[in-house]
Amino acid sequence: GAVVSQHPSRVICKSGTSVKIECRSLDFQATTMFWYRQFPKQSLMLMATSNEGSKATYEQGVEKDKFLINHASLTLSTLTVTSAHPEDSSFYICSALGQPGTDTQYFGPGTRLTVL
Amino acid sequence: GDSVTQMEGPVTLSEEAFLTINCTYTATGYPSLFWYVQYPGEGLQLLLKATKADDKGSNKGFEATYRKETTSFHLEKGSVQVSDSAVYFCALYNFNKFYFGSGTKLNVKP
Question: How far does the CA of residue A58 sit from the closest CA of chain B (Å)?
């Protein structure tokens, strides 16, 4: 099956710094990627939809200036958490749609962010 | 707006027991419905899906039927194994967006 990777898998940073998380589709092209945040009680919250070559669409309540998303190529989307604070500590997951117009998405393994 | 509600866990069962994890949804239009599974230390994987009313999705002994009249998509398995221990997420896809339930952790004891 299709593979999506995320890097890094874990990151610890100091409050006030920025952290970049990469999401790559390894064996297919993904025009659409999604970024989720998984909370401690396991709920998965959609943060934004990332489309290659255009601006990301953010969900209500998600600060676009804090969570910068760039989808510069058909195989790479990045999420940058700017000026991170302890409340940003969470598990961030990306997924990629296999083909435009389909509902098959492939998930990355996630990135655990801890902000001290 | 669209949403998914699933039963809270954890659910603890003995091996070979019958499993039901309830899932109900709220949505406009005609969403597709999914069950995803997350094994310890791994990313979410598609378990099964159904795209229209009365469709039954099935995989690895798991089944779920898309019930539009009750807006439900309950996950069932007749005989669980220890290897089924994981977190299960119900989800819907509608108007190019996915909505997930909160997840249900299943523990299967030998």
Answer: 11
Cβ of B51 within 8 Å of Cβ of A103? The answer is yes
Q: Is the dihedral of CA A1, A108, A102, B35 positive or negative?
A: positive
| CB under 8 A, 24+ apart: contacts of B47-56 | B47/B75, B47/B88, B49/A103, B51/A103
Between chains, do A42 and B105 touch, taking CB under 8 Å as contact?
yes
What is the tens place of the pLDDT at every residue in A33-70?
Answer: 999 998 776 678 899 999 888 889 999 999 999 999 99
In the 8-state DSSP scheme, what is residue A40? T
User: How do strand B11-14 and strand B104-109 relate by DSSP bridges?
Assistant: parallel
Choose among A41, A107, A47, A35: nearest CA to B47: A107
Residues B42-65 pLDDT 10s: 888 999 999 999 999 999 999 999
Best probe of the A interface among B100, B105, B106, B107, by most A CBs < 10 A, is: B100
